[in-house]
Amino acid sequence: MASTRLFNLKRHLPELFELEHLLVRAGARVRSKVLTQVSVADTQLPIHALELGSDAPGAPMLGLIGGVHGVERIGSQVLLAYLHSLLERMRWDDSIDCQLAGLKLVFVPIANPGGMYHNSRCNPNGVDLMRNAPIAAKGKVPMLLGGHRISRMLPWYRGPKDAPMEPELQALHGYMEEQINGRPFNLTLDVHSGFGFKDRLWFPYAGAFEPIRDLNVMYRINRLFVKTFPNHTLYQVEPQAHSYTTHGDVWDLLYDNSLIQQPEATFLPLTLEMGSWLWVKKNPRQLLRYRGLFHPELPHRRSRILRRHYPLLDFLMMATRSHRNWMKTKPEQVDKDTRAAIKLWYDGEART
Ligand SMILES: [Zn+2]
């Protein structure tokens, strides 16, 4: 039985095979748990959560999430490559221990293993997990793409009305709430691929054009990144609603709930949307396979993408750990940053 499972994983879900291999090798360097299991083809596929660094209840937290859309495997692979490097560095690099002592780093690299097993965007029930949270967009959304309840045979299906969230999303949502709870500072990055020619770094809202309360914090993070890595201007940083609005975005739900549950804390959920149209443009043969729309097929391009986002992931870790050094809390400074952010992102002027 165990050998059949390994065979199946290697063939259909090499990302989970790699993750479980990393877990075994990591030993005590990582704390891990299974959030839930998904049944696929007589096999139970776990959703693993991995925790590194400080376990202090008030430590700042960085959460890295991938594979919410099963066909966007490159997102999981980017996180697994980063995790691999961290674990290797923990063997010999004193500075990484020092860094991790000051924050909690959480990975959920394969949030939709059933979808990934089937090479499908949605979960095995045909539901798009990023349209499934019980939160509706304010105003109109693009037809189908914004989320719909017409049929699970069509992409972007939200799931039946008033049904509970899908098991994968319940697990992710519950785990993230648990992690955020009681912490003064939290950042998350959910890694996707598939939209546009550029890599985009989105912040909430996905379902509304209105600015978030923490717009000033987003402004600071953007400024910090641009000033620290002036030659790494890969990302178009913007509210997700600038690209398209959607119903049911779980990060919108978590963000709004965090404002109610712990208004004094900061929680900023970011999404990295890697622009896969560029990979298709450079290698049109990718169009011949469905997954080619979302995943770089050529090995050299895949390697390039796996290393391309290291600086961003390192930066988010440093920014989380040292948030007290760059966060501005005086009301006049918060107002000034908010005004600058509105000018940058909401006045129709030049964007970064
Ligand atoms: Zn996606």
Automatic annotation (TrEMBL):
Coiled coil among keywords: no
Alphabetized Pfam families for the sequence: Peptidase_M14
Residue ranges annotated for the Peptidase M14 domain, each copy included: 46-261
Record key words, sorted: Hydrolase, Metal-binding, Metalloprotease, Protease, Zinc
Gene Ontology CC terms: extracellular space
InterPro entries named among the record's database cross-references: CARBOXYPEPT_ZN_1, Peptidase_M14
Cofactor list: Zn(2+)
Residues passing through the membrane, by range: none
GO MF annotation: an example: metallocarboxypeptidase activity
An example Gene Ontology biological process: proteolysis
Domain of life (superkingdom): Bacteria
Family named by the database record: Belongs to the peptidase M14 family.
PANTHER family: PROTEASE FAMILY M14 CARBOXYPEPTIDASE A,B (PTHR11705), SLL0236 PROTEIN (PTHR11705:SF143)
UniProt name for this protein: Peptidase M14
Organism: Neiella marina
